[in-house]
Design goal:
Length: 96
């Protein structure tokens, strides 16, 4: 069974304008512009890049290694601040 040919060509992706409106993009046989862009005299571009779908790839241990030296350099500073904070608090009279 052959399908009857229609005056419309099938396109997988909508043009940028139809895609921004989230509307069906109907391209004529000339394939120069879709019906909506032709009626509104807009430039019909098919340059939109689709974003990848699905979950983001998991981070590996190797991608976390550069952060380790930074953490070890901050640890002594935090320890000093914590000890100085305790000394400042112990110098004040809590019963006065």
């Amino acid at each position: 069974m052959d399908k009857p040919k229609s005056a419309r060509a099938y396109n997988k992706k909508a043009c940028n304008y139809c895609s921004s409106l989230k509307r069906k993009c109907v391209v004529g046989l000339s394939r120069q512009s879709c019906e909506r862009c032709a009626n509104l005299r807009k430039k019909c571009d098919f340059t939109r890049i689709d974003r990848k779908r699905g979950p983001k790839p998991k981070r590996t241990i190797t991608s976390q290694i550069p952060a380790e030296p930074k953490i070890t350099s901050i640890t002594p500073q935090l320890l000093d601040e914590f000890l100085n904070k305790d000394q400042k608090l112990s110098g004040k009279c809590t019963n006065c």
